[in-house]
Structures are given as structure tokens and as C-alpha cells.
């Protein structure tokens, strides 16, 4: 009886190991290599973009398309959620159902996109998150610059040009997104210890029309504004237009983030903005990383991109590297 019991236990143990081994083998999550064949030998990459109403995001898609064009085996599928979180969740699920080989996603908001992105990763699809993070670790790699570092660099520059005191308007990006939170926190670190006061702050949701509307409110409330810090260049430009309409644009400086050559950098050259801080799109790096994943290469969990500051002087030498 005892022998039978022990034999049963041993068989049960071995069966358990077999089940566990099978489970582990089948648990091909998104860290694994993308499918070798794809569709007809192609590498199918699905890209879920949260919004193409911002020039920077249009540039991100253009950078992805340009990088992919150099590799005929890549087939791209673009989705534009038009600033609608529910639509972007549906897009991610559609791309998973289409069995893309690699999923790129630039989320509108962190929390609502975390679950569909995690399910794609759990289904074995490598997931590359761009610019805005999701919560947790259920993705393959994140590509983006250091928003807190950029915000801090902007704050330190503002502290220097204002001589350590003054009234500032902060026009924030969407504060349910991680870049908005980090650019704000970094800026406050940069001006810490000074007599600079954030006299007005508002969430302009990354959109120029919203920034202009909020700046109208700031102008109505404040008789003196020394500088506007906007979390992106369209926001800074919208603030400038509002100040110009009120005849007050010359009393203050304008600072933004993104530094696209045809947008923020051009605004600095024209004297509309006083400074802009680069936030690379990461589009090319996303395609290069997808190719590395397909080859079975290990990729880091986080790829951090560099940044530069552009003022009129810095622009002559291609921008000043932010250390």
C-alpha cells in the first residue's frame, strides 16, 4: 500500500513537471523573437498612434515609414485613435487579432492602455511602447527620451535667463499621461531654490487651440508675466498667439518642448520662441528595434534617447546637448 502510494506520488510529481514544462514552452510572451515568416515572409508591424492632431506625432509616423522603407520585407499598418482612448484600445485589440509580428504603440494615457498592451504581450507579440509609458512591465521595450530630465533642463535655463525670479505661466500636456507629469515635475526641480513663481497653470492637453484659450485666461488674470513654459511647442506657439493678440507678447519669453526642425526650431529662428528642448520621436529606433527582435536579439527594457536645447545661439551649432 505504501509502495503504491509512493509510486502514485512520484508519477504525479513527474506529470506535474511535464505540465509545467509544456506551460513554460507555450508561454511565448512578447520578449520572444517575432515570427520568422510573417505574412509571405514579411515582417508585419502594427502601429497604434494616439493622435495625429499634433505635428510631432505626424513626424513620428513619418519617421517610422521612412525607416521601414529601407527594408522591403516590412509591411506597416497604421492606426490613428484621434485622441480617443477607447478607440485606441480597440485599435490595439484589432492589431492583435490581425496577428501582427510586432506591435508599436504610443499611448494616449497610461492606465487605460495598460491592459490591452499587456494582453498583446501575453499573447506572444513583441510590444514596443513609444514616448508615453504604460503601467507595469508587460511590454518588450520602451523607447523615449527622459522627460523629467528635459523638464529640469528647461527649469534651470529659465532660472538663469530670469535671474532667479519672476512670474511664470505653465501650460501642461495631458496630465494623465506620463510625459506631462514628468515635464512638470522636472521643471519644478529646475527652478527649485529660486524666487520664480508659477503664477498660473493649466492643462492644455498638448493642443495649440487649448493652449491659446488657457493663455487668454492667464492674460486676463495676471498683469505681469515674465515667461511661458509649455510642455510642447504647439502649446508655446498658441500662448504666443494669444499674447500677441493682446499686444503683450514682448513683455514675456516663450519656451516649448519638441524641437522639430520645421516647427519649434523654426519658431526660435523667427524669434517667436526663446528656447525649445528636443524630444526625438523614436520612430527610426522603433523600426530598428523591431528588426533586432525578429533576429532573436535581446533588446533592453528601456531605450533612452538624447536631447538638445535650441536657442538662437545654440541653433547655429545644431543645438546644445543636455547632459
TrEMBL record:
This protein's record includes keyword S-adenosyl-L-methionine: no
InterPro entries membership: Peripla_BP_I (IPR028082), SBP_2_dom (IPR025997)
CDD domains tied to this protein: PBP1_sensor_kinase-like
Cross-referenced Pfam families: Peripla_BP_4 (PF13407)
Domain of life: Bacteria
PROSITE patterns: PROKAR_LIPOPROTEIN
GO CC list: cell envelope
Periplasmic binding protein domain boundaries: 45-297
Keyword ATP-binding listed: no
Localisation: Cell envelope
Keywords for the protein's UniProt record, in alphabetical order: Signal
Molecular function as annotated in GO: carbohydrate binding
Family in the record: Belongs to the bacterial solute-binding protein 2 family.
Protein name: Substrate-binding domain-containing protein
Amino acid at each position: 500500500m505504501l509502495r503504491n502510494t509512493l509510486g502514485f506520488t512520484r508519477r504525479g510529481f513527474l506529470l506535474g513537471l511535464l505540465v509545467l514544462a509544456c506551460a513554460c514552452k507555450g508561454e511565448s510572451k512578447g520578449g520572444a523573437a517575432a515570427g520568422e515568416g510573417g505574412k509571405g515572409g514579411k515582417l508585419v508591424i502594427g502601429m497604434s498612434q494616439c493622435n495625429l492632431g499634433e505635428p510631432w506625432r505626424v513626424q513620428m509616423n513619418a519617421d517610422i515609414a521612412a525607416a521601414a522603407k529601407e527594408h522591403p520585407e516590412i509591411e506597416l499598418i497604421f492606426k490613428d485613435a484621434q485622441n480617443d482612448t477607447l478607440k485606441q484600445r480597440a485599435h490595439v485589440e484589432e492589431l492583435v487579432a490581425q496577428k501582427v509580428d510586432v506591435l508599436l504603440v504610443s499611448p494616449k494615457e497610461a492606465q487605460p492602455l495598460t491592459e490591452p498592451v499587456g494582453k498583446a504581450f501575453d499573447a506572444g507579440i513583441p510590444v514596443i511602447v513609444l514616448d508615453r509609458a504604460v503601467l507595469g512591465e508587460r511590454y518588450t521595450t520602451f523607447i523615449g527620451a527622459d522627460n523629467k530630465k528635459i523638464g529640469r533642463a528647461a527649469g534651470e535655463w529659465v532660472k538663469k535667463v530670469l535671474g532667479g525670479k519672476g512670474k511664470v505661466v505653465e501650460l501642461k500636456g495631458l496630465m494623465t499621461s506620463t510625459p506631462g507629469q514628468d515635464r512638470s515635475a522636472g521643471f519644478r526641480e529646475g527652478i527649485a531654490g529660486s524666487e520664480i513663481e508659477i503664477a498660473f497653470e493649466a492643462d492644455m492637453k498638448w493642443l495649440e487651440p487649448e493652449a491659446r484659450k488657457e493663455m487668454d485666461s492667464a492674460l486676463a488674470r495676471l498683469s505681469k508675466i515674465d515667461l511661458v513654459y509649455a510642455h510642447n511647442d504647439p502649446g508655446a506657439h498658441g500662448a504666443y498667439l494669444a499674447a500677441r493678440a493682446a499686444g503683450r507678447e514682448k513683455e514675456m519669453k516663450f519656451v516649448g518642448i519638441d524641437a522639430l526642425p520645421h516647427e519649434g526650431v523654426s519658431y526660435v529662428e523667427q524669434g517667436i520662441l526663446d528656447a525649445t528642448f528636443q524630444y526625438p520621436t523614436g520612430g527610426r529606433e522603433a523600426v530598428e528595434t523591431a528588426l533586432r527582435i525578429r533576429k532573436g536579439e535581446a533588446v533592453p527594457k528601456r531605450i533612452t534617447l538624447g536631447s538638445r536645447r535650441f536657442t538662437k545661439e545654440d541653433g547655429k551649432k545644431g543645438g546644445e546637448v543636455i547632459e
